[in-house]
Amino acid sequence: MRRLIPLALALATVVAVPATAGAAKLPKDVTRTTYRYPIDLRPGTNIIKIRFGVPKPQGPGYIVRFKPNLTRRDGSIPPTDKIHLHHAVWLRFGSGNGSTPGYPAEILTAVGEEKTIVTVPRPYGVPVSANETWLLNDMIHDLTNKGMRLYVTWTVDFVKADSALGRKLKPVHPLWMDVQRGSAYPVFDVLKGSGTNGKFTYPDQQPNAYGGGPPLNEYTVDRPGTLVASAGHVHPGGLYTDLRLRRAGRSKLLFRSEAKYFGNRPPVSWDLSMTATPKDWRVRVQPGDVLKVSATYDTKRGSWYESMGIMPSLIAYDDDTGKNPFASRIATRGFVTHGHLAENNNWGGGKTGIADPATLPDGSAPGDEVDISNFKYRYGDLSGVGAARNPPTVPVGQSLEFVNQDATFAKSRDLQIFHTVTSCKAPCNRSTGLGYPLPNGSPLFDSGQLGFGQVGFTAAANRNTYKTPTNLAPGTYTYLCRGHPFMRGAFRVVPVKT
Fold first, then answer.
1. Rounded distance, CA 232 to CA 217, Å?
2. pLDDT digits over 295-327, tens only?
3. Which of 8, 157, 306, 355 could form a disulfide with 65 if both were Cys (CB 3.0 to 4.6 A apart)?
4. How far apart are CA 179 and CA 63, in angstroms?
5. What is the C-alpha separation between 455 and 139, in angstroms, rounded?
6. In this predicted structure, what is the pLDDT of residue 103?
7. Which distant-in-sequence residues (6+ apart) come within 8 Å of 391 by Cβ?
8. How confident is residue 408, by pLDDT bands cut at 50, 70 and 90?
């Protein structure tokens, strides 16, 4: 059964206090308030949490802009290569708008590390009632072993319903479009070299993507209205999401939300902004129309595990002002909602002085087992000293087994620390940053997230062991931990002694 809310719920005490800012520069009847929710991020963790007591605008009224962020307690923004906002999803109950199809509550809005700013085009606004309750579903990665005290923040432009402007606004409602619609952790893998001409589109190019079940990337419109806004969400490697409409056997592209990577960099990092629809974009839909979303990733530069393809949209029900997409020209390209962010400055890939593991002597791992403990690979860790850094050997046709002890001895699932063993292009020994290291080894191998967690709500593989492939040719193989990329290691496959 697919549900958005995990059974393990965070019962944090909220100390967030709204703070107004910049109101003098805003249009009449628009107030701007920044809300925040405190999070004590445990070292190395990346689990989904549900937060209660989430502050919100005091309705009735309308949200006309929503800007999310992640800060330290002093207000500074942590570097993305240290702390990563995998997702934050704001849900609400009791709004009178009903639930989002496939989910137990209405999804108000959501964001990932690309930090898209949602601006609702005039004359529309997202209604907020006086008695609704907000929840926050977040997954924040500590890419270090230190943890951090944080705030998830959101700055809201709000218009009171009884103001002069409020009386002119029309309600619009969130429409959640996702290639894994209904899943609490809606992810898929994109492997290097897959797809066509260096691109892979999910679910189109994924055989049996939904196991014979209904296409989760489609939504059938059941009420006439007008789509007024849309923007996509992808992970590093993502190129774009497409929103299409199918009607009576005809198909039409409504919008392509593109990932714009800054600094002429390749599409391998979080230094990006997604494009959103132009302010005058309007598409009229009718009952029976099928909306479909897909996500396209680059597959020339690496493998992208646990990727996403989401395209939140806004719809004004019973509004007939939109254009017929089959009779009128629709703008399918848009604009970025922000420029390069300073927290994305560290690209990585600089020299470190760490040895090329291919030049190191053979090491050993008693019993052909490598424990992962305290954020280190016990044997063959590239940051190790002396014999501990030498790549352990395994004969051709045999496996080296990795055991994540950081998960084994956790007292609760909230303390789980997941690690991976993921192939990385040799020598995989340069400095950690947004663009380095990458899961780009050849041949490909990946352990999954070694650790334990609730099925369907975490990245956990629900095992803490992994054995390397038995078909590896002789040579030195380097790997990384996807959750903690400062962790690198190597092992060596050697000919069988005769």
1. 13
2. 999 999 999 999 999 999 999 999 999 999 999
3. 157
4. 26
5. 15
6. 63
7. 357, 360, 362, 363, 380, 476, 489, 490, 491, 492
8. confident
354 to 3, 347, 377, 429, 496: CA distances (angstroms): 45, 18, 15, 6, 29
Up-side HSE of residue 323: CA atoms within 13 Å toward CB? 12
d(CA 7, CA 49): 10
Residue 361, exposed/middle/buried by CB under 10 A (0-12, 13-18, 19+)?
exposed
Place of tokens 């529309």: 124
Q: Provide the token pair at 255.
A: 């919008």
Assign 59 a pLDDT band (cuts: 50, 70, 90). confident
Residue from 481, 478, 476 nearest 489 by CA: 478
Per-residue tokens: 155: 């700055």
Is residue 181 a contact partner of residue 46, using CB atoms and an 8 Å limit? no
Domains observed in the chain: 1-170 (2.60.120), 172-346 (2.60.120.230), 357-494 (2.60.40.420)
The gap from C-alpha 9 to its chain's centroid, in whole angstroms, comes to 20
pLDDT for position 413? 66
Distances (CA, A) of 132 to 36, 54, 126, 376, 394: 18, 11, 13, 46, 59
Q: What is the largest CA-CA distance in the chain?
A: 88
Scanning the structure block, which residue is given the tokens 């802009």? 65
Residue 123: how many CA atoms within 13 Å on its side-chain side?
Answer: 9
Distance of alpha carbon 177 from alpha carbon 114, whole angstroms: 17
Cα separation, 130 vs 128, in Å, equals: 7
- pTM higher than the cut 0.70: yes
DSSP string, 253-318: EEEEEEEEESTT--S-SS-EEEEE--TT--EEE-TT-EEEEEEEEE-SS--EEEE--B--EEEEET
Cα separation of 284 and 342, whole Å? 39
How many Å separate Cα 224 from the centre of its chain?
31
Q: Measured between alpha carbons, how far is 116 from 454 in angstroms, rounded to an integer?
A: 29
Neighbours of 21 (CB within 10 A): 11
* Average model confidence (pLDDT) across the chain: 92
